[in-house]
């Protein structure tokens, strides 16, 4: 209730609606049209046009040469020797070749569009269209016009050099795939067979499971519930890096975990592959070979951080999510007379990515 002399009540009584403010509305902005066309030097001087054309196809052929150089550098500076100088030179010169090949294509394409292709301005009206025969005819006509304006059909040297540069640019990448597996030789006939290489690791019957990187053998009593250890064959601890240590370790690396015995779901043929709830699985993801490293002890799930594949350790490391195509290979384990964990054998299937052809 308002009281006498209330200032708010006085304001309500004295308020009156004000007149609206007048807003000046100007005439709509007129379309200024296109600015006067400025001819390029290549439009006015035929000699300049010829120089521009030569520049473009020269850049494209330089791209071809750079791609070839990248392949040559791969052969001149082999990384198989393990020398840091060779590895540095290999990365440097192959990288320079590929980078210059890509750069030359880009610069050539930009110079082509700026100096040679049609430079006339035009307005393209937009309106709703539906697919019909006349639309198809218009598209064909547009392609013909684009071909005429760009000179793609007439500029044979530019077109052919561009095709050559594009084809050559992928050759270094193809050649680099050679390094995925070494070539076979009389001394090592299986070196070029990825199935054989991934089917055999340094694990063998009686190999003790050793902590990585110390190489100390681990006892079953040290593996507590919920724990996860990265282990390698004890034999790897005595292998020097020059004896293929990294290659062998990459194939043999294993994750060791202990689960409650009642949580394990094992098939009949694998019931003796674990020991008192302790299981061992390859750490190499079966998608593209990334290291599976994240273990969630409550759900018993393993996660590959590269592409989010998830494996259920309690049920044979089967895939429960992600792009991996098959479970992680299991290493059969047991204990020796001293209580140390040992391997019963090597893996019974190839480790690593499942895109390899398998027997």
TrEMBL record:
Q: Which cofactor does it need?
A: [2Fe-2S] cluster
- What keywords were assigned to this record? 2Fe-2S, Cell membrane, Disulfide bond, Electron transport, Iron, Iron-sulfur, Membrane, Metal-binding, Oxidoreductase, Respiratory chain, Transmembrane, Transmembrane helix, Transport
Question: Which PROSITE patterns does this UniProt record tie to the protein?
Answer: RIESKE (PS51296)
- Matches recorded under SUPFAM superfamilies: ISP domain (SSF50022)
**What is its subcellular localisation?**
Cell membrane
Of the GO CC terms on this record, one is: plasma membrane
- What's the superkingdom here? Bacteria
Mention one GO molecular function.
monooxygenase activity
Please give the Gene3D superfamilies that the UniProt record associates with this protein.
Rieske [2Fe-2S] iron-sulphur domain (2.102.10.10)
Where does the chain cross the membrane?
59-77, 92-112, 162-181
Record's keyword annotation contains Membrane: yes
Membrane disposition: Multi-pass membrane protein
Chain ranges of the Rieske domain: 241-342
Q: What does this protein do?
A: Iron-sulfur subunit of the cytochrome bc1 complex, an essential component of the respiratory electron transport chain required for ATP synthesis. The bc1 complex catalyzes the oxidation of menaquinol and the reduction of cytochrome c in the respiratory chain. The bc1 complex operates through a Q-cycle mechanism that couples electron transfer to generation of the proton gradient that drives ATP synthesis.
Which family does the record assign? Belongs to the Rieske iron-sulfur protein family.
**Protein name as catalogued:** Cytochrome bc1 complex Rieske iron-sulfur subunit
* The organism of origin for this protein: Microbacterium caowuchunii
